[in-house]
Amino acid sequence: MVEPYRILIVEDDPEHADLIRMGFRKHDEFFLDFASTGEQGLEMIRSGSYDLISVDLVLPGIGGLDVLVRIRKFDQDTPVVMVSGHGTTELAVVAFENRATKYVVKSMESFKSLPYIFENLIQEARFKASERAMRMEIERSERIHRSVVENSLGGIYILQDGVFKLVNPKLGEIFGCAAEELVGMPFWHLVQPDDMQCVSRLDRGIEGPAPAYESRVLRKDGDQSWIEFRTVPIEYDGQRAVLGNIVDITERKEMEIELVSSNRELEAVNSIMSRVLQPDSDVEKDITGALADLESGIEGGEVGGIFLLENGNLVLRSLFGPVEKLIRFIEGRDSKILLAGPNVYKMEEFSDYIWTSVPLTFGRSKGTIVVASTSNDGDRCLSFLQKAAPHICHIMNASVMKGSSRQSPSEKLLLTEAKGAGLQSG
Q1: How far apart are CA 204 and CA 226, in angstroms?
Q2: How does pLDDT run across 120-135, given as a tens digit for each residue?
Q3: What total of structural domains would you count in the chain?
């Protein structure tokens, strides 16, 4: 069913008005209203809504051009057809300069063709209005999306062939640089080598809920941050791409790591304390077990040893891990430095470890604990070692009370290995 058209005809000549009515007689889709003066026509326009307005150029009172000018002050879109009994070019130019939609010269043929002219003009106006509304909606949607993206608390990006194609300001903030600097940069340039596995999954078109990945990234200032990101496959500029969002979880991750480390250290200390409170009949077993507990409390702990000072030399009492690594570390070390206070020995050439040592004092005896760790946080290792050292001393006291001079077979073996390896140093 054709949508009805409401038309206002401003025409002062009754005969011409009748001719116009006759031209629309067979077109039921048109509803015509008539006004005989410009003033009446303007009043009807203000009180009603029309799809098209036809205005005679010559009217009593307010002329047709003045009516056109007044209409355009408050209505820019409704088609206005200027109708004149004179087909001069000058009049047509003036009409179009004042934003008339069409200029029609009165004749029997033109009156008959008005329904078709009006319908085409109305359809064109409706199409333009729809197109304009659609464009405005798209622009509004784009403004909303742009505002959401630019003001998002998370980093948003589009990745294509592993390269940033679009990023928002927050993403630049997360990586410690301007967003523009990231465009064209491969994502993997910012990811730490140990976390490359998660990046390799970014371009996969995974169906279903977007999985979350965690990774360490390198900021422009050289600091490391932790991020959590989700990705979904999209099409961008006609090619396959990835839409992702990133949240900086550094604070949360550091708290998680701290919690894990604290729990690990607490469990290790509790295990050592249980050996103090409920000692085994075999003291050597308690010492070896306590050293193993100590290693379990240190992230990346792999090698450890307890040394006792005997006749001015440090003698290996208990060992955890390869003895060769202890030998390489202890060779050439001044025992006075090892016994003087806690120390962190940073990674040295050809070494994968950070070494820490804490002196021991139990009864009249002295010694030191030496531990090697792959962790790069030597200060934390040392702090934990200092917390655990007093409990190790309690176990060592029990050993002294039972008579450390009576060496068990395992102790004799350790001392023999130590002497053979040159572990006694002055």
Answers
A1: 22
A2: 999 999 999 889 888 8
A3: 3
